UniProtKB/TrEMBL annotation:
The keyword Ribonucleoprotein does not apply. Keywords: Hydrolase, Membrane, Protease, Transmembrane, Transmembrane helix. The lineage of its organism: Bacteria, Pseudomonadati, Pseudomonadota, Alphaproteobacteria, Hyphomicrobiales. HflC and HflK could regulate a protease. This is Protein HflC. InterPro entries: Band_7, Band_7/SPFH_dom_sf, HflC. Signal peptide: none annotated. It is a single-pass membrane protein.
Length: 300
């Protein structure tokens, strides 16, 4: 029969085995790579996911092997044409050599600080060699490729691979932008005023030409009307003369009726004439003869 002491010792031994086994096992996730440390010094790098063994006194450090983001604060860069630019860029990177990364920078936070400094330097070098238009319009894709190459070359010593570098925004500083916008607005206003002046001049030319043509047309029309009126008056006089020669009494009667029509208009029938004047001779005698027996036609 076992003594109680033997059972306690066996239990402690089993517990010690479990503790040693627990301290000798570690797990590597698919998104991680692990460095095994012995008394603070790296002795192994494990990149395969799964369950692994180590000495119980060793420790492990997990390092992310996914693509990581590097958000860079906006930086002011001077282009080759001495124009100041505010550049907002970011980068994507991954840790390709965990041991070198651990020995050089030690952590992702420290790596971000180091890469930010390197990225700013690459931005100033590359963008400082080209002018403003090239950065904002012409060759931005090529410039981003050059910046990535330079940053990747410098980050290689830290066990880091730069996957991509992108310029999110490259623009003039706010005060410069306002000056440019005002200059553009002034230029557009000047062009608009010039277009309006040209349009006004063209409109004046068209109006002058139209007025001149209208004056000519009216003058020609008046001339034609006067000629036609003259021909009509001549024809009328001819007809009157012919009618007078054929029937003098009828012609005198017609002239008197015309004089009555023109003289006795509505709201104006007052005359300062003698009742026995020749104007009223057809009122007293339908034949138009005066008391003396003479036939004198009434004047219109």
């Amino acid at each position: 029969m076992r003594s109680p002491v033997t059972g306690i010792v066996a239990l402690l031994a089993a517990l010690l085995v479990v503790i040693v086994a627990y301290m000798s096992l570690f797990t590597v996730q698919q998104t991680e790579q692990t460095i095994v440390l012995q008394f603070g010094k790296p002795v192994d790098v494990v990149t395969d996911p799964g369950l692994h063994f180590k000495a119980p006194w060793n420790s492990v450090i997990n390092i992310d092997k996914r693509i990581l983001d590097l958000e860079n604060p906006s930086q002011e860069v001077i282009a080759s044409d001495q124009k100041r630019l505010v550049v907002d860029a970011f980068a994507r990177y991954r840790i390709k050599d965990a041991l070198r990364f651990y020995q050089s920078v030690g952590s992702i936070q420290a790596a971000n600080l180091q890469l930010t400094s390197l990225l700013n330097a690459a931005l100033r070098r590359v963008l400082g060699e080209v002018n403003f238009i090239t950065v904002v319009r012409d060759d931005r894709e090529k410039l981003m490729g050059r910046i990535r190459e330079q940053l990747d070359k410098e980050a290689d010593g830290y066990g880091i691979e730069v996957v991509d570098v992108r310029i999110r925004r490259a623009d003039l500083p706010e005060q410069n932008s306002q000056a440019v916008y005002q200059r553009m607005q002034t230029e557009r206003q000047r062009e608009a005023a010039e277009f309006r002046a040209q349009g006004g001049q063209k409109a004046q030319e068209i109006r002058s030409k139209a007025d001149r043509e209208a004056t000519v047309i009216i003058a020609e029309a008046n001339s034609t009307a006067e000629q036609t009126r003259g021909v009509g008056d001549a024809e009328r006089n001819r007809l009157f003369a012919e009618a007078y020669g054929k029937d003098a009494d009828f012609f005198a009667f017609y002239r008197s009726m015309t004089a009555y029509e023109n003289g006795l208009k509505a709201n104006d029938t007052r005359f300062l004439l003698r009742p026995d004047s020749d104007f009223f001779r057809y009122f007293g005698n339908p034949s138009g003869k005066t008391s003396a027996g003479a036939e004198t036609p009434a004047k219109p």
